[in-house]
């Protein structure tokens, strides 16, 4: 699979799962040993658990849109920088509802198999900015870095 085909596959996965909620189709792009890891999840998720998490977030944020800002591929990896935009209309992942339109930056590192199946997604979200937008307490970087 070429680098451009890998980037296209990742863009397709984001569009199917996060933007359209067509999770059964998105899951067809996963390898049998698929794992999702994230800065806001306590443990890796398999394909079924990933689909449920996306469904739960989309249910809490019905106007959610994920905009891909950058997509880079090398070897068998793809890196995306995305912005999630939407309003939390009901509690999600321990966060309260808000009438504010949220903008959350995310970086994701995707590993694909030689045939193009998605084996792993490792995502880091800017949770401090997210918390600040919700008016929740944030901690300075130096405070977080200290034991």
UniProtKB/TrEMBL annotation:
InterPro entries assigned: CHP02096, Cyclase_SnoaL-like, NTF2-like_dom_sf
SUPFAM superfamilies registered for this protein in UniProt? NTF2-like
Annotated protein name in UniProt: Ester cyclase
User: What organism is this sequence from?
Assistant: Aquipseudomonas alcaligenes (Pseudomonas alcaligenes)
